[in-house]
Design a protein that fits this description.
The structure is a single chain. By secondary structure, the chain is mainly alpha-helical. It contains 21 helices and eight strands. The strands form four sheets. It has a two-stranded antiparallel sheet with strand order 1-6. A hairpin with a 7-residue loop joins strand 2 and strand 3 (216-218). Helix 3 packs across helix 17.
Length: 630
C-alpha cells in the first residue's frame, strides 16, 4: 500500500494509487516477481543471439591464401586462415554478449518507464537468424557485409520512428490478412527449429546434402569428421556425445519442466547442459585443448568482469550507393516488413494477454510510446552491432505471474544490466546447450497455426505457403512475399469472378472466409494528427471519444467504457440517448455495435462477402434491426 500511494505507484498506475486509470489487481511485489519470471524466461537470448550473429563473422576478415583461392570466407578447416578467423569470431561473440544484454536492459527499462507495459524487448529471434544466414551469410558469404546490414537496421529504426509518430505502423499491421499474420509467426518458429538442428547455432543433427540429391542430410558426427569439401558427415553419424547431451539435457529435460510450468525452465536447461560442458578434458567439453579452446577457457575463468564492445560498436558502412544499393534496399525493406509483423503481433498479443487491449478500438494504452521505444531500440541496437530489437513473446511468463504494469519490464531491464558483468559465463554457453532451446521456442511459435482459417482455400493456401517456405528457403522474406502474392491473386481473382457474375459464382465455403478490408478502424492517420489539423490546441490529449474515427457507413455509438465494470457495456453519457429494448437507459451492449465495415457478418446477407448485393437502404435497415454475429 505504501508503494502504491507513492509517486512511483501513481506513475505506474498501481491499484490503490489514486490514479483515475489505475490497473486493477496490480501489486508492487507481484510486479517484481513477474519481472524476474520474464527475465528467466528470456535470458537465453543473451547467449543465443550472440552465438547466431557471431556466425556471420561480424567485422572479421578472412585473409586470402593462394593455396585456397576458392575459400574466400574461411569455411574450409584446412585453410590456414580459418584458425585466426575463428579466433576473431570468438571476440565477436563476447562483444555481442555485452551488446545483447545492454540493449535488452535499455529497451526493456524504457518500455516500462515510458509506455507502462509489462513487455520486455531484446534482439528478435528469427530476425537475428534472417540477419545472419540470409543477409550477411555464414562467415560473411551473403549478399551484403555485416557493416552494411547494420546500416540497414539503423535506417530501419529511423523509419520506424516516423511511422510510429504518424501511426502508420499500427495501420499497416492491421491491414495484413489475419491468416498471414498467424502463419508468419508459425513459419518463423519452424525456421528457428531448423537453425537449432544445425552445427553453427544448434545441436548439430543435420547438415547440407553434401552434393547429393538430398537437400538436408542427417549428421550428428564429431566436427572433425565433417568433410571440408561437401560439409556433410563422412562417418559416425549420430555418435557425437554433445548431440545427445543437448537432446536429453537441453531438450527433453526442458520440455519436461515446461510440462509442469516450472518458471525459468528454458534457462534451467541451458545452464544444466552448460555446467556439464564446462569441465575440460571430457568428450563433451566446451573448451577443447586447442588455441580457440584455451582462449575461451581463459576468458571463462574471469567469471565476473565487464567485457567492452571492441569490434561491433558503431561499425556501420554508409557506402549504400553503387553496386550495394540494390541489396541494401532489399535488406532494408525486408527488415521493415518482417519487424512490423513480428513486433506488432507480439505487442498486441501481450497487451491482450495482460488485459490492456481495448476491444473497441483494437488498440492498447500507450501503443504509440511503445512503438517509439521499439523503434529507438532498433537504431541504438544497430550501433551496438545487434540485429533488430523487438518485443519478446516470453513476456507472457511475467504476465502470467500477474504483471500488468511497467514495473515488470523495469525489473527485467535491471536483471539484464546485472548480466552485463557476467559476460564470461554467457559467452561460454556452447551451441548444443541452446540448440534445443531454439527448437522448443519454435514449437511454441508454431502452435499458432491452429488458429489459421483452414476452412477456406483463399486463406489457408497463402498461409501454408508462408509458413512452409520460410524454413524451406531459409528465408523469412521469401515466405512473406510468396504468401502475400498468392493471397492477392487468389482473392482478387475470386472477387472479380463474383463481381462479373453479380455474386452468383462464388468459391466453395466462401462464407468461412476471413473478412478483410483496407478501411481499418481509425483510418490511416492517428487521432492526434487529425486533432492538430482541426486546430485543437491540446491535440496530444486523447478525447473521451474521437469523432474522426466514425464514418457515415460505419456509424456506431462510441463512448468511454465504464472502468472497473468488468463487462462489455459502454456508457453513452454525452453522446445522446439510445433506447435499446431490454437494456438500461443510456447503456448499449457491445454486441449491438458494429465497429467498422462488418456487412459480411450480417444475417441473411447473400453473395460473396466482398460484394454487396443489397441496396444501401437494405443495409441500413439490416444494421438497425439485427445485431452483428460474433
Amino acid at each position: 500500500m505504501a508503494v502504491a500511494r507513492s509517486p512511483v505507484g501513481r506513475h505506474f498506475k498501481l491499484e490503490f494509487s489514486g490514479h483515475p486509470h489505475e490497473r486493477k489487481g496490480s501489486r508492487f511485489m507481484t510486479e517484481m516477481r513477474a519481472g524476474l519470471a520474464t527475465f528467466f524466461a528470456m535470458a537465453y537470448i543473451i547467449s543465443v543471439n550472440a552465438s547466431i550473429v557471431a556466425a556471420s563473422g561480424g567485422t572479421c576478415i578472412c585473409e586470402p591464401n593462394p593455396l585456397f583461392s576458392d575459400d574466400k570466407f574461411c569455411q574450409n578447416t584446412a585453410n590456414p586462415s580459418t584458425a585466426p578467423y575463428n579466433s576473431c569470431k570468438l571476440e565477436i561473440n563476447r562483444d555481442l554478449v555485452t551488446a545483447t544484454a545492454a540493449i535488452s536492459c535499455l529497451t526493456s527499462f524504457c518500455m516500462g518507464v515510458f509506455a507502462n507495459m509489462p513487455i520486455a524487448l531484446a534482439p528478435g529471434m528469427g530476425l537475428n537468424a534472417y540477419f545472419t544466414y540470409q543477409v550477411v551469410g555464414p562467415n560473411g558469404s551473403g549478399v551484403i557485409s555485416y557493416r552494411l546490414a547494420l546500416t540497414a537496421v539503423f535506417v530501419e529504426g529511423l523509419i520506424f520512428v516516423a511511422l510510429s509518430i504518424l501511426g502508420l505502423r499500427q495501420w499497416l499491421a492491421r491491414t495484413i490478412p489475419r491468416s498471414l499474420k498467424i502463419a508468419s509467426g508459425a513459419g518463423i518458429g519452424l525456421y528457428l527449429a531448423l537453425i537449432g538442428l544445425t552445427y553453427d547455432a544448434g545441436i548439430g543433427a543435420i547438415t547440407g546434402g553434401g552434393g547429393t540429391s538430398e537437400p538436408i542430410a542427417l549428421a550428428g558426427c564429431l566436427p572433425s569428421l565433417i568433410d571440408p569439401e561437401t560439409g556433410a558427415c563422412s562417418s559416425h553419424k549420430m555418435r557425437n556425445p554433445t548431440l545427445w547431451l543437448g537432446v536429453f539435457g537441453g531438450g527433453i529435460l526442458t520440455a519436461f519442466l515446461m510440462m509442469y510450468r516450472v518458471k525459468g525452465a528454458i534457462i534451467a536447461g541451458i545452464l544444466f547442459v552448460s555446467i556439464i560442458s564446462w569441465p575440460r578434458d571430457t568428450s563433451i567439453t566446451a573448451f577443447p585443448r586447442t588455441d580457440d579452446g584455451d582462449s575461451s577457457f581463459s576468458f571463462f575463468k574471469k567469471i565476473v568482469t565487464f567485457h567492452p564492445i571492441n569490434r561491433t560498436l558503431g561499425v556501420q558502412d554508409w557506402a549504400i550507393t553503387g553496386s550495394n544499393a540494390g541489396q541494401f534496399a532489399i535488406a532494408l525493406v525486408t527488415f521493415l516488413y518482417v519487424d512490423i509483423l513480428d513486433c506488432t503481433g507480439t505487442l498486441y498479443s501481450m497487451a491482450r494477454f495482460c488485459g490492456a487491449m481495448d476491444e473497441d478500438t483494437q488498440d492498447f494504452e500507450g501503443s504509440a510510446v511503445a512503438y517509439l521505444v521499439d523503434a529507438m531500440g532498433i537504431t541504438i541496437g544497430s550501433l551496438f552491432g545487434c540485429p533488430p530489437v523487438t518485443a519478446f513473446i516470453e513476456s507472457g511468463a511475467g504476465i502470467s505471474e500477474g504483471g500488468t504494469t511497467g514495473i515488470t519490464a523495469c525489473v527485467t531491464g535491471i536483471c539484464f544490466f546485472i548480466s552485463i558483468f557476467f559476460a564470461p559465463i554467457f559467452a561460454s554457453i556452447p551451441s548444443w546447450a541452446t540448440g534445443c532451446t531454439l527448437i522448443l521456442v519454435g514449437a511454441m511459435m508454431a502452435r499458432a497455426c491452429t488458429e489459421i482459417n483452414w476452412r477456406y482455400i483463399g486463406d489457408s493456401i497463402p498461409a501454408f505457403l508462408t509458413m512452409a517456405l520460410m524454413p524451406f528457403t531459409y528465408s523469412i522474406a521469401y515466405g512473406l512475399i510468396v504468401g502475400i502474392v498468392t493471397y492477392t491473386i487468389l482473392n482478387t481473382g475470386a472477387w472479380f469472378v463474383a463481381v462479373l457474375s453479380s455474386g452468383r459464382i462464388v468459391p466453395h465455403d466462401h462464407e468461412h472466409k476471413d473478412y478483410w478490408t483496407y478501411k481499418v478502424r481509425g483510418g490511416l492517420l492517428p487521432g492526434w494528427v487529425k486533432r492538430a489539423a482541426r486546430g485543437k490546441k491540446d491535440f496530444w490529449r486523447d478525447w473521451d471519444f474521437d469523432a474522426e474515427e466514425v464514418g457515415s457507413r460505419d456509424s456506431y455509438v462510441l463512448a468511454r467504457k465504464e472502468r472497473g465494470s468488468g463487462g462489455s457495456v459502454m456508457s453513452t453519457s454525452g453522446v445522446g440517448n439510445v433506447n435499446v429494448p431490454g437494456e438500461r437507459q443510456g447503456d448499449v451492449p457491445m454486441d449491438g455495435i458494429i465497429t467498422g465495415d462488418r456487412r459480411c457478418e450480417l444475417d441473411s446477407t447473400p453473395g460473396y462477402p466482398m460484394v454487396s448485393t443489397m441496396s444501401k437502404g437494405d443495409v441500413r435497415a439490416t444494421q438497425t434491426s439485427s445485431p452483428s454475429r460474433r
